[in-house]
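Worked example 2:
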Amino acid sequence: MTFGSLPRHERPRERLRALGPGSLSDSELLAIVLGAGTGGRNCVQVASELLAEFGGLQPLTAASHDRLCSTSGVGTARWATLQAALEVSRRAIGEQLRQGDALASPAAVRAFLTVWLRNRQHEVFVGLFLDSRNRLLAAEELFRGTLTQTAVYPREVVRRAIELNAAGVIFAHNHPSGVAQPSAADRALTGVLRSALQLLEIPVLDHLIVAGPRCVSFAESGLL
């Protein structure tokens, strides 16, 4: 069943056009991404059932290909559409950071990192390399680890900062456990990276931890 099976005033696309995306519920936004219903259910019903089964948008978008495609109403094509929508969002925010002062828009930095890292099943350590005007030069995955830890090599980080002629760096990594609190190892690593980059007069501007929808800043927590 498609949007056409719904009364006009209940159709998500019509409501989005008239009221804007912020006025739509999670199920309505997801219904637009899905595009159509299945098995006699309209797209909003399918979206509502998916959100109820997975417990919300975050765990739904974090689900693996096999887990999601084993659910009624979702196949490889819809899984791919969801992943593409997330990547489009991340790249759009990245463009915003490239065009302006990243430090002047901490909300954009948090949004970018949250979209990028929150669904990872293993720890990933990334760097945002900035120019002298705090514009984004590159956002790169530097190291990938296990479910609980990542091996980070300061020498490689320094080498990449030099290659990009970076004037500042923001680091981030995720905690798949969902616990956003920085560990002793996280604090120690940040200190080592700061010392290594300080020799080149490249400041570490922040280190953020993404745990699900939460994003904790070392700078704001007084740890940097």
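The first strand starts at residue 124 and ends at 130. The chain has a mean pLDDT of 83.
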